[in-house]
Design a protein that fits this description.
CATH class of the largest domain in chain A: Alpha Beta
Number of strands of chain A: 13
Mean pLDDT of chain A: 96
CATH superfamily of the largest domain in chain A: Dihydrodipicolinate Reductase, domain 2
Largest interface: A-B, 55 and 56 residues
Strand order of the largest sheet of chain A: 8-9-7-10-13-12-11
Oligomer: homotetramer
Largest sheet of chain A: 7 strands, mixed
Strand content of chain A: 15-25%
Distance between the termini of chain A: 33 Å
Low-confidence stretches of chain A: none
Chain lengths: ~350, ~350, ~350, ~350
């Protein structure tokens, strides 16, 4: 299978390259970058030096006849300009921007500040969470990969929202994310002396991933779900922890939560349920998924406040982006879902 | 004024020493440590080398007649053994453990797992938050310094709880704290290779500071307040951020919140209200208070979810412990509240 | 091929497990730990959760008949007690301690403070640097894996020492290493609050890796080489940078250094020569090898001081330990040297 | 005394502001910034919020008659354009750029790549290391503050170079510096995801501080001293460690080194000699000087290699820049050298 990447010079692009170089069923066909056209890929992604001699090409690419699959890792607002044309060639596409994630075109006006250029395409895209939409992904030409915080929160919340266990109006998602989530462009906000050691609440309200989470959870429960998302930048480079504070609408025991999650994720190879009584991994922590495609999920009941705390941890560049994208590709081609994605996390790192 | 420290070898003790060495009105009289008796203070607190030749003494100390003030920085359960005797000498005391923070003796059974040895002393202690109890502190012999996360959360929540602006049953405090909060004793949980880069939800429910926050906020409002506290270890050494997710019981505008907070803290020199539209300090972030006694407070209204997000940042060893303790001492002796505490934060660090 | 690990609960043991789980030609047969016997491996190495259900066994193991290979990852002084017996079974062994690295038994008295228990075994061990001793490793039953700083320094220095280019009496190796190099046992020196942000010269002189480097380089040149090694703990978890300051005994041009290094490492798949004029990877930096088995090597001529600076970067747990060990195993079994070791570094992390 | 700062928006400017706000004898008169003219100082230096309401002014300033002292913290090449005019007003000046550090005008061509515009002014500047030039500084109108790595290395080497103890042709300075040393301008090299966790040899040879060190040490010994400096970026924000590898030209005992250093620095209040046998501070480490003006110095004899390792640690923004500058100001005004500079380091941080 021949695979191309449009927009391969960013961190998500680099991670796609890293996975695909080691993927047993994919052959890397091309990687584009407007800025670095002509450069060796390893000068921008130095971890790939010695592993590939691929050079970036310019974006203006006519998809070769023998290319079976394209990842589009362009900024929001750029994908929508290129994908309609690409899609007409019949090539399968996973888009990693937000441009095709939302079902309701008006949500783009409200949350992204622009009128969607191709609302007709929105229904053709499947939201790329295999744990929720495996069969749709399998049968689709077009997949929109979720936002990194969105997928991490959705995976923690889906089983309990579906079961009607919690109050839908008081769901708090307190997200903590590493600096790679801000992308590869230097700014004062990402300048090391300013960014090291922060616990910076950069988006206490109004974060765009809110609407994705609401869309997916509302679909699951049939009712409207309201998400209170606050996003914080914290000190590591990779990783997301979502702490989902929810309030129980009925009582439940820990063992029944275990059963609920085990059942919900019984055929999901990248979900690990974490709840230990000793050691250094009692609850999910992004430290233990770095470099892997796992999303670790855990929970704790707070009887004092009739609260259920759901915890989920992922690598924002893997399960939060490139890993999920390749997982979708595997499914779209009938491969083992885990192909090319079985590397354990690096620990300690 | 002659000042002693009982239990001066830990991080809080070290911070008390650092402040008192530079305090214009205090003279450091003694510092005790069972473990390091006889050692120079600067061998345990190497930042003090060249600034003091004090040596640790053993705990078994009869308070000298000329000692006016004692800080007790012993572990929970240890202070309660020593303070009744100390208090009888008439010396003024600030205790930094949890042993005298709670008004209801039964809360010690429930939250700390032991029956309080001297419940008679509990009413004699003032909870050491000058922003709430300035005059009581001034007139008291005995002050119990609050927990680091407790004081940080209380300062963010007090004005809005008092005003009845929010739902008292859905108050989420999502706390993020640096590694110095775990104390100076090495464990696998604080081992650098395991602790670096974590976002570890070490206490998603049942954290002991919950009860302090509820006690103080219930006092303010007259009604019972229920706190949903989850504590996370994050990657820096110092600092706390509390993200308080609350739900509005009535509408309010940002400018009215400004007024409410300005009024509430009009005579509180260590509260800074933070809300900027540009630059690197739009909301509170512990990075900007490191080494200082400030508690930075900010807020954001989430109209989408009828939520009010309150944010507060402090240095857990300063405003969260030693700084508040010295602030109380200043007040108890009629000094300027800020005496010895005016150093700006170090930035960038 | 069936492979066992004796001493698998430390960081090196965990890394051996991580590699072997993904190794196409090896089957993990057992992993021992005195302390954690009976525990699931993934409770100690949480990155392996979901990837193996292996449990630690106690050290007291009679090597099963069908075990072809054993890694011994015990502390210095422990390997020497167990290996003589193991070796007699005929199983191939790579030892990761220092117990069999040195050729001269007296060096153990001088540098390690003990008299070697089995000096007769020393000549039977090959020093496990495939870049220098490939054929000997291939034909040996017993290999002693080098110290992490030793192998990193040796690989930078070998070509220029062999060529007689530098003064042998003024070779300075200034090594910087991450916290995982200190092992998994918590101490005050590795306590996060004390270890974060250090640049701690923990062994300015007398580091034991000195003698390994001298042994190997002296072998290469035929003359005695004197190494001035100083070891520093720095802030990351993984990685080593060796800055080798040497003084030229004759002039040389950069392009001739390139040729010399390219020739010396022409058949070494894990050596990357790094010297770029732009971008973020101009010289070796451990950040770009994390999780991989590469050793990156670079150089710069300082005409002002007639100095040649050689730079080498490795992941101390990979090329500095477990990676080199598996590389040796591959060679000892006639496999492709890179089998199981082709994963790129994770970047950014 | 009224003090102004020209170029106050960078990290060194911010540190000058932090010190001067708390300085008992100085009154902050103005602070300039071309870029931020009109902005409150605390928007750029958020640690100063609540402590000053000063606003930046534009550079084009006619020094007010009542201004007694000016710090110039402009980039190299900018100071030289403004200082000649400033100096004519008779105001005392400490310049923090490199523009007036070197005595030999030709060194600017060689090391900085430009022809000095005012070589006539060079002899009028004293090199601002009070530990070497106290009396000259006292009597001078013009002082050039040293480079951060230069002063840190000079202070470690000065006593042994002066005494003729070491070989002058084999002096290696291996410097490790935090990210604040790169200034406040974001680039890909300082982007958090790229900068976190590095050990980056950014200038293995040819670093400009080389010539400052040689100038000062040659002055001390009367002979030409050749410095082999390599500079590395490491993971913390603040701090420098210089590891100076030198080779003994004659034997010496540790206790004689102690005496030599004690004597040399007998009247230097900011030099601490560090050599402990236990605890966490056996040798200098920048971690223990953060926020203070100390330069910690230590040493170790390597008998094996006839090497003497000298170690020095400083805060690059304090003793390495703003702290030294204020120390010089104090001396130039006959104040206690330590005025405004007595704050201990913050630890742990």
């Amino acid at each position: 299978m021949k695979v191309g990447i449009i927009g391969a010079s960013g961190y998500v692009g680099g991670e796609l390259l890293r996975i695909l170089i080691g993927h047993p069923n994919a052959q890397l066909s091309f990687a584009t970058s407007r800025r670095y056209a002509g450069e060796y890929v390893y000068r921008i992604h130095p971890n790939l030096r010695g592993l590939t001699t691929l050079q970036f090409e310019d974006h203006k690419i006519s998809i070769q006849e023998d290319c079976d699959f394209v990842f589009v890792a362009l900024p929001h607002g750029e994908s929508v300009k290129i994908i309609p044309q690409l899609a007409q060639t019949g090539v399968k596409i996973v888009d990693l921007s937000a441009d095709f994630r939302l079902k309701n075109p008006e949500d783009y006006n409200r949350w992204y500040g622009y009128t969607h250029l191709h609302p007709d395409l929105l229904p053709k895209f499947v939201y790329g969470v295999p744990e929720l939409h495996h069969d749709q992904i399998k049968n689709s030409q077009l997949v929109a990969c979720p936002g990194c915080m969105a997928v991490t929160a959705i995976l923690a919340l889906a089983p309990v929202v579906q079961s009607g266990l919690i109050e839908n109006a008081h769901i708090v998602v307190d997200a903590k994310i590493g600096s790679s989530g801000a992308g590869e462009k230097p700014t004062i906000a990402t300048h090391h002396a300013e960014r090291a050691g922060v616990v910076r609440p950069y988006k206490p309200a109004g974060h765009r991933h809110t609407v994705e989470i609401e869309q997916e959870l509302s679909l699951l429960t049939g009712n409207s779900v309201r998400i209170s998302l606050s996003a914080h930048a914290v000190g590591m480079v990779r990783g997301i922890l979502c702490t989902c504070h929810t309030f129980l609408s009925k009582g439940i025991e820990i063992q029944d939560l275990w059963k609920m999650f085990r059942k919900f994720y019984s055929s999901s190879p990248f979900i690990r349920l974490i709840r230990d009584v000793k050691g250094i991994h009692k609850f999910p922590d992004p430290k233990f998924v770095i470099g892997s495609n796992f999303c670790d999920i855990g929970f704790e009941i707070d009887n004092h406040a009739e609260r259920l705390v759901l915890l989920s941890a992922s690598d924002n560049l893997m399960k939060g982006a490139a890993g999920s994208a390749v997982q979708c590709m595997n499914i779209m081609f009938g491969l083992d879902e885990t192909s090319g994605l079985r590397s354990p996390a690096i620990h300690p790192v």
